[in-house]
Specification:
Helix content is 12%, strand content 34%. The chain is mainly beta. The protein has one domain. Strands 1, 2, 3, 4, 5 and 6 form a six-stranded mixed beta sheet that branches.
Length: 243
């Protein structure tokens, strides 16, 4: 999923103005409901504040219909999901009549316009994460898949929706402080899906509700599903740039 800086972005007045999605503690982003041991677990919110997050799921939602200032628009969307190694939740797996307790990291997610334009929220968050701005050359060749398995320091906040539902939102991202070690790998299986893959690739590994959202995209409506699959630099302080 290569991206450049020419895509359009909905008007924002900063990162906080972007439409953030609710976060969940149930790690269901890489597992269909039938195999998810956490579906019946009591809903819990991750703690607010700074928390290490590791990106394990990056899903292209295609071009989705969104309402902005009372007007419907079609906008390319992207969903990033992070696991929180320092915040865990317990569930139960029943196999061959035997119940086993399983501990998994909590999960938070964010849905953004798929753009690396100058005003794009995605670009601002990524530049906070890597600790420096992109150059034009870096943007021209940047591949989002390189983010999988990378760690950052997330700023999490608790909010209440208009319907009165409490949820957790990602307010910011930052490079891990010097000396803070990132996990070697993710506990959840890593997922990378591009809309061009249709129902191929890792589409079948996504939860049903996310599959249905992707099916509502303009790409699926217009063309139908296609089953065809599809040593770092350092900053001014001498620290490695994560991507």
């Amino acid at each position: 999923m290569n991206m450049n800086g020419n895509s359009s972005e909905l008007p924002t007045s900063g990162i906080g103005a972007a439409p953030y999605e609710a976060c969940t503690s149930i790690p269901d982003y890489a597992m269909p409901a039938a195999r998810n041991p956490f579906m019946n677990t009591e809903r819990q919110l991750p703690e607010a504040g700074a928390s290490t997050g590791v990106l394990f799921s990056l899903v292209d939602l295609g071009t989705q219909k969104v309402t902005w200032d009372g007007e419907d628009k079609w906008t390319p969307k992207l969903r990033l999901a992070f696991e929180l190694p320092d915040q865990t939740i317990e569930g139960e797996v029943v196999e061959n009549g035997k119940t086993t307790k399983v501990t998994k990291p909590m999960v938070v997610s964010i849905e953004l316009t798929r753009s690396l334009g100058e005003r794009a929220t995605l670009r601002k968050l990524l530049e906070q994460w890597r600790g420096q701005a992109f150059t034009a050359k870096e943007l021209a060749s940047f591949n989002l898949k390189n983010l999988l398995g990378k760690a950052c320091l997330l700023t999490l906040v608790h909010k209440t929706s208009q319907a009165g539902r409490n949820y957790c939102a990602i307010q910011g991202m930052a490079k891990l402080p010097k000396g803070m070690k990132a996990p070697a790998t993710t506990q959840n299986d890593q997922v990378f899906y591009e809309i061009e893959q249709g129902e191929g690739g890792q589409f079948g590994e996504l939860p049903e509700w996310l599959q249905e959202k992707i099916r509502s995209s303009k790409e699926f409506s217009a063309k139908g599903a296609s089953s065809a699959p599809q040593g770092g630099d350092t900053d001014a302080d001498g620290n490695q740039i994560p991507f």
